[in-house]
Hints:
The complex is a heterodimer of chains A (737) and B (532).
Chain A: H1 3-42, E1 50-58, E2 63-67, E3 76-79, E4 83-88, E5 93-99, E6 109-115, E7 119-124, E8 129-140, E9 146-158, E10 166-173, E11 179-185, E12 190-199, E13 205-213, E14 222-227, E15 233-238, E16 242-250, E17 253-261, E18 269-274, E19 281-285, E20 290-297, E21 305-313, E22 320-325, E23 331-336, E24 341-345, E25 351-355, E26 361-366, E27 372-377, E28 381-388, H2 396-400, E29 415-416, E30 427-428, H3 431-462, H4 465-480, H5 483-500, H6 502-526, H7 540-566, H8 571-579, H9 588-612, H10 616-624, H11 629-658, H12 661-666, H13 684-691, H14 700-734
Helix pairs in contact in A: 1-14, 3-9, 3-11, 4-9, 5-9, 6-7, 9-11, 10-11, 11-14, 13-14
Chain B: H1 2-6, H2 9-38, E1 47-51, E2 56-66, E3 73-78, H3 82-85, E4 89-93, E5 97-101, E6 107-111, E7 117-124, H4 126-131, H5 137-181, H6 189-219, E8 223-227, E9 233-237, E10 241-245, H7 252-268, E11 271-272, E12 277-278, H8 281-312, H9 317-331, H10 334-357, H11 372-397, H12 400-408, H13 413-442, H14 445-450, H15 477-486, H16 491-527
Antiparallel strand pairs in B: 1-2, 1-5, 2-3, 3-4, 6-7, 6-10, 7-8, 8-9, 11-12
Amino acid sequence: MNQKILKRVKRRDRIARHVITVGGVAIIFSVILILFLIARVTFPLFSGAQTEQVARFPVSTAPVAAGLDDYLEYPFVIDVHGVVRFYAPPGGELADEIRLQPPTAGSGIQSVERFAGLNFGVLWEDGSQTLEQVRFTTRFDEQGQRIQDRRIARLATFPPPSGGSVMESLVRISEDGRQTQVLLLDDGSLHVRQDSETEDLFGNVEKESHAFVLSGLPDETIAALTMDRQGTTLYAGTDQGTLLRWDLSEPGEVELLDRLPAFPDRRAITALGLVFGDVSLAVGDSEGGVSTWFPVRVSSQGMHKQLQRIHTLASHNAAVKTIYPSLRDKSLISVDVEGVLHLDHMTSERHLLSIETDAPLVISSLSPDGRGLVAVDADGGAHLWKVDNPHPEISWKTLFGKVWYEGYDKPEYVWQSSAATDDFEPKMSLTPLIFGTIKGTFYAMLFAVPLAILGAIYTSQFGHPRLRGVIKPAVEIMAAIPSVIIGFLAALWFAPLLEKSIPGLFLSLAFVPLFLLVAIVLWQAICRHPRLENLDRGLEFLLLAPVLVAAVFCAVKLGPVAESAFFEGNFKLWLFGQTGVRYDARNNIIIAFALGFAVIPIIFTMAEDALSNVPNSLKAASLALGASRWQTVWRVILPSGSPGIFAGTMIGFGRAIGETMIVLMATGNTAIMDWSIFNGMRPLSSNIAVEIPEAPVGGTLYRVLFLSAVILFVMTFILNTVAELVRQRLRKKYGRF
Amino acid sequence: MKSFWKQGEPFVWVTGAALSVTLLMAMVLIVVVLVNGLGVFWPSKVATAKLHDGGSVLGEVVRSEAVFEGEGERLQFKIGNRELYGLDFRWIDKTDISSITYADDTMVLERMEYGNFYGRLIGLSPEAQAVSGGGDAVQQLRQAHAYVMQQKDQLEELDDELASVNYRMDQLQRKEKALLYKGRSPSDPEIQTLRQKRNGLTEKFQSLHQRQMKQVTELRNYTATFTDISGTDRDMALMDLVRFYQPNSMSVFSKVRYYLIKLVELLTGSPRESNTEGGLFPAIFGTVMLIFIMSLFSFPLGVLAAIYLREYAKEGMVVRMVRIAVNNLAGIPSIVYGIFGLAFFVYGVGGSIDRLFYPEQLPTPTFGTGGILWASLTLSLLTVPVVIVATEEALGAIPAGVREGSLALGATKFQTLTRILLPMASPGIMTGLILAMARAAGEVAPLMITGVVKIAPALPVDGNFPFLHLDRKFMHLGFHIYDIGFQSPNVEAAKPMVFVTTLLLVLIVLIMSSVAIHLRNKMKKRYTYGTF
């Protein structure tokens, strides 16, 4: 033969071998790649916060407050003389200088209270206060370069009090223009002043002013004060560890809501701050502890709420000096007297960051979006850090454990990923979703497994051979019905039907076995005649079909009768009255049917394969020994085929876990944890489908959804691998199938 | 009798019952879909119900059910006329109705907006009368409507032209943006010519648009006046009427004709009224194209992998691992594929393409957003295992003697494969492909994340260069069902359309799988002699 051709042929063969091998191995890799790529998206969820020092520069002497813009372009420092200096990192050159006008000339700043971003309540040495707001406005010039204009607006001025010198002051302006001023005087008394302007229908402006001294103070020194943004709730902490809370929402009417010892050892409260959203109060104590508190209903009946310690964050080594909230999420920064800064997240109780510099930090501030941190140390050095803290609210505990969320009476598993407001506390517990998946799958398998396996036994062992050739393709076609169609019919056709005849369903649970029994007995009586004997062999299921239809029909028709007899005429009301379970129109019964319908063909086909591949010799031997056909199946065929049946069940199980469209359409998608079959659930799969379109790429929700995909993957991976291993063993035992 | 129980016969019956239940359920599903889907387009009679309180209701009786409280039944009327009544449906207790009649001159109008109108024809506007050839009012309406529809077709051609001009303008702008991005100055001659071209197109667009507007205003003068049951007159432009008929006086023949017309509209028309009326063409087209692109990827990959497993790999650890991997691939939930497609194809590959080739468009994504290509690739991953399993089965069914014979005659392994084995296994491979296609046709969850939309503004294929737009979003039959069944503002009115779409999808999937199963069975028979 021509050597050239031979060579070419051989070369082609070699190339083909390589290409094909590469293709095969690529399949394994793609599986691993899928898992890896999905898992990779979730990794950042668990990484801590990273900081990168952007600049370090000296600032003017005696700073009292500091702040930062979102772009980390203009850190600024306010000094005791009322001068606001903006610096330009990284060099720290002075970029801008704005002088705050003191209410009386020559007065310096005594202290500054920063709240809600770049608002500064300034207490001047003469006892007057002003409310200053630093504003950054962004514009773009012709070249498209970003320029930030810096401005300071004075929102309000408060005159000094008539007597006594002011130790500490809080000033607020609410959205409807009410001004609230709280003063702590050197005699330890708390003075409140509320000014509001109301305009009536005719445009007359009425000024209202209330001033009073708070009573009911314990005989202790107030060490820390804070107030919410609107000036409606005032918090105070004393050196004996007493926490106080007043309601100031009604002008002129003050109510002391709480007065309680915060800690058993009565350690001093040294710092207070409100977590973003103004619901939780952060308390720093003299032992370095940081905890958050919010009002919780004391008894189950009463409406009275009392402050309660909810979260305990990582402890400092020394007394906490200041606590500032983040303006983006429920994070807090706390600085102790030794100048160590902690960044913690309230919900997840994660300690994200500790910063310690050569000289202790005295003043610190996060940028409004939480991505920058500026701090001034005792030596007058300013530090600017870029903070990369993408997912502080996620920890293993918030994902899988019970968490006490703001406004809840007790720790709970909750999934609620978003809400209308920014200061919302995301609740991302995957437990109710995993529960939903397991619940839906469990009931569906309860329905599908017996039907599928029994049906497979019948088809492979008892069915007429000719019919078997019809049944198997029929079931395979059933497997091809798209799940979106099953889900649609379940939700829009079956659910309303079921709602009308729930008692009918219960009745048919009793009627179907009863009718079956009667039918079998009757048929036996009829078929005594030898000529009719064996007529039914392999055709039983056809005979039974009308019986089943009749049973269900009777049950549905008698349903209303049963409803009035047993359930006082209305099952849903009865159910709610008796058990407190609400009947959802799209409930687990529907899921069981629909999901079961989708899974039956899968289990059926594999079980049927396994059973019909049991060697015929076994069957023949058993029958020859005198066993009946059922005895043969039960004692011989089933044990031999059981690994295959098991594998089929596992694969069906995996399919049910991952099924998305059916559960998406036929449940209410409410993430509740309740085993009742009369309400719905929210499984992992449909949760992904519902939420991923709204999840910003790279955001926490996006990554948590990927994590739930990983969980789904792992669940099905385990089930499928087990099934495949069993099948491979089986294949070895009985040869190919 | 005793032995009957002892031998466990009743258990046999129980297994039979289980099979019965399974088959009955499948039958119920098919029957429900058929019954609800087939009847949708049959023109049903329009009843005039006189009520005891003096009022009357005109509409199709949709169904009846028992009232909640007390005895008796109530009827659901489809009363249409959404702009007048606000609701399409109304429940009326049978006891409130004094008589039901079927007036011959009752007319049903299918409209572009606001759903059906039920009422009577009063007359035509002078313009409309002028173009009709005479006869009674209904005939006049028919002729005038035909004329207006013909005019409207021309308008639609104008529409296409406008869309094409618009697309070209868009492309020019993109090019300009790209040049600017590359650092060319705005006064660059190339950019200037682009601008000139674009200005020319803008002028063309304006003039076309004006021409269109003028024609539309002219056409709007062709109106007809109808009255509803309560005597409210309404003038309607003939161009807003899709079709009209008088169901109470229709013969069976004309009903069949109407049914067929509706069927043609379903298969070739575009959807109207947020998908609850009109045709399914974009959805059918999207589905077919999706399946086609998916097959292009999953078919070669799957066959290659199966050949490796069956013909090349040596039984051992690796093959076992690959088998496990393949079976896992088949078992991974489709939504996980979807989320993988989103992360890998859309944001990963698509995002990279955007950064490399379309940086000037950012942050507006070109390929970095869901589209038909990414959806197809995701689906092809999902269906590869189906092809692998089927191909493997087909190769395995070929008797070893055939293989050995070929090798003994001196053929190489590759030659044996391409000349002997693959042709013999082709029916099996086809089976796998068809099954994979059926699976893809019915799969919705991964598509929802990777690019399917309610209403796609343009098909992925059109007359504008490069003709195939793989970055475009698309419509899909399965998603159509989900969308109009669950996200439509008027679920009750959308129901018929959902059932029709369901029927269509069921038919497609069932036919495909039946063909696949048939092929497989045929093949099995062919080689069964060699399995031992």
